[in-house]
Amino acid sequence: MTAKTWTQNNPLYLDYQATTPTDPRVVEAMNPYWTEKFGNPHSRNHHYGWEAEDAVEIARGHVADLIGASTKEIIFTSGATESNNLAIKGVAKFYGDKRNHIITCVTEHKCVLESCRALQQDGFDVTYLHVQENGLIDLDVLKAAMTDKTVLVSIMAVNNEIGVIQPLKEIGQLCRANKTFFHTDAAQAVGKIPLDVDDMNIDLLSISGHKVYGPMGIGALYVRRKPRVRLVPLIHGGGQERAMRSGTLPTPLVVGLGKACELASKEMAAEAERLHGFQNRLFEGLKERIPEIFLNGDLVHRIPGNLNISFAYVEGEGLMMGIKDLAVSSGSACTSASLEPSYVLRALGVEEELAHTSLRLGLGRFTTEEDIDYAIERIAKEVNRLRELSPLWDMAQAGIDIKSIKWAEH
Amino acid sequence: MAYSKELIDHYENPRNVGSMEDGASDIGTGLVGAPACGDVMKLQIKVSADGIIEDAKFKTFGCGSAIASSSLVTEWVKGKTIDEAATIKNTDIAEELALPPVKIHCSVLAEDAIKAAIQDYKSKAATANKGQDAAE
Ligand SMILES: Cc1ncc(COP(=O)(O)O)c(C=O)c1O
């Protein structure tokens, strides 16, 4: 293989949790549906409509197959944000008269947390579970939080910052026993780990196209039929998608999501194994080259395509500036306008000073072993350079505990 | 976010990185910021008997703008009297490096670091003088 040269304007992509490139095979599958096969899938009167409808239904089948669902249980949406909003608000509003308590967790994606906040404004009770140091919820704490008023538990399958996998099957069992619906935001899990809605007792499951090598702007929500889960729709109109989500389906995007799920079904196992090797190579390589680095989140209960590491004594944004030929993201404050370090890392109990030194490294379908070695080389070089610049590194070397110093917080 | 050439140059080739002996009476050390806030600057000045800053060194934990701001001020203070150095304003630093608005706090920290180093030097000098008075 020829060695690629990565530059600031053509950086090596290691941010697969932010988004995944659309697989060329997905683009190819979508292409005819923009031009020749442009029909409205809801037109029942002519060939254009039928052909689009057929394509949509085939895609629905691929999405369903990937999670062990049936086609009638898949609703297409604009993405996981909409799916999460629909699942949480839809269930809460339908059943709220009888049960008005929701349980979620502090490390959820903002779209889940904000949907819950909105329901609190409408009078719902929401419990935000804390997580353990490894990023996983404590099942006993979940069990203790459930009451006969709990209508919904919404716990993400895989966390977008630290890649940890929640104990879905155990959560599903607890929910079923309590007659509580179980929703999981599986945006980062679909196509990465095996999911089976029946085996895991999942009642609602959110999917995002652009996290599974499909297009942006499309997603899906699995809504269980037996026993039936009912939702109040967010979007009213022509009654498409079994009246749970009105609006003309975007055929090319739906076809793209379907193709992406079909590919994932076939390739997930081999891909996971390959990425697992890369994850290991990257983590070991970094540990070998750089002392005092810390993994955030559990290593075992984790998707293979993610590492989130604190490089103590080197601020994350400063580090990213030195590795501009790598496209990664940081849990440090400074990347956002808020100046607060990542709420997910804080929820694990990671000290603020360490949270500021973290990088999220995301690996995926198009990552090569060469890429891993390049990343190790670049990160090690830059961390070691910046440590030479760091007064905190000096203090640590001199045996001074930085917590013993009275810092002026600003 | 596009950073200025000046900023990138200071980040990639920082000037005057290092440490000087903290205990020496002609050295003033300023340590400002906090690890929990994501930036810490250590700025040291070596002052001659006639009050001129002969040398300056820094170490910084922080983003590229924080590193560049502290590197820049080490260049600026060298050769100045401590009174002149004390007049360096964060706005001058921000302007020279074309800091984006969210990074203005880095220039504020650099100004604080100079002030803290001068203050430290002055208080050391004062105790040294007192010591001398007592001995006479
Ligand atoms: C865990 C998780 N949930 C939800 C979303 C939102 O997905 P979408 O971009 O499809 O709306 C994301 C992506 O940022 C995510 O990582």
From TrEMBL, chain A:
MF terms from GO for this chain are: 2 iron, 2 sulfur cluster binding; cysteine desulfurase activity; metal ion binding; pyridoxal phosphate binding
Its recorded reaction(s) are: (sulfur carrier)-H + L-cysteine = (sulfur carrier)-SH + L-alanine
Q: Matching Gene3D superfamilies, A to Z? A: Aspartate Aminotransferase, domain 1, Type I PLP-dependent aspartate aminotransferase-like (Major domain)
Q: Does the keyword Kinase apply?
A: no
Q: Any idea where this protein resides?
A: Cytoplasm
Listed binding positions for [2Fe-2S] cluster are 334
The record's section on Pfam families has: Aminotran_5
**Active site feature:** 334
The broad enzyme category this protein falls into is transferase
Pathway the protein takes part in = Cofactor biosynthesis; iron-sulfur cluster biosynthesis
Which UniProt key words apply to this protein? 2Fe-2S, Cytoplasm, Iron, Iron-sulfur, Metal-binding, Pyridoxal phosphate, Transferase
What cellular component GO annotations does this protein have?
A: L-cysteine desulfurase complex
Q: Which residues form the Aminotransferase class V domain?
A: 13-374
Give residues annotated as binding pyridoxal 5'-phosphate.
80-81, 160, 188, 208-210, 248
Going by the entry's taxonomy, the superkingdom of the source organism is recorded as Bacteria
**E.C. number:** 2.8.1.7
Q: Which GO terms describe its biological process?
A: [2Fe-2S] cluster assembly
Stated family? Belongs to the class-V pyridoxal-phosphate-dependent aminotransferase family. NifS/IscS subfamily.
Question: What subunit structure does UniProt give?
Answer: Homodimer. Forms a heterotetramer with IscU, interacts with other sulfur acceptors.
Q: Per its UniProt record, what PANTHER family does this chain match?
A: CYSTEINE DESULFURASE, CYSTEINE DESULFURYLASE FAMILY MEMBER
Name of this protein:
Cysteine desulfurase IscS
Source species, please? Magnetovibrio blakemorei
Q: What is the lineage of its organism?
A: Bacteria, Pseudomonadati, Pseudomonadota, Alphaproteobacteria, Rhodospirillales
From TrEMBL, chain B:
Q: Entry's InterPro entries?
A: ISCU, NIF_FeS_clus_asmbl_NifU_N
Task: Return one GO MF term.
Answer: iron ion binding
Report the residue ranges that make up the NIF system FeS cluster assembly NifU N-terminal domain in this protein: 2-126
- Domain of life, per UniProt, equals Bacteria
Q: Which GO biological-process labels does this protein carry?
A: iron-sulfur cluster assembly
Q: Output the Gene Ontology cellular-component terms.
A: cytoplasm
**Job description of the protein:** A scaffold on which IscS assembles Fe-S clusters. It is likely that Fe-S cluster coordination is flexible as the role of this complex is to build and then hand off Fe-S clusters.
Similarity field: Belongs to the NifU family.
| Name of the protein this chain belongs to | Iron-sulfur cluster assembly scaffold protein IscU
Species of the source: Magnetovibrio blakemorei
Q: What is the lineage of its organism?
A: Bacteria, Pseudomonadati, Pseudomonadota, Alphaproteobacteria, Rhodospirillales
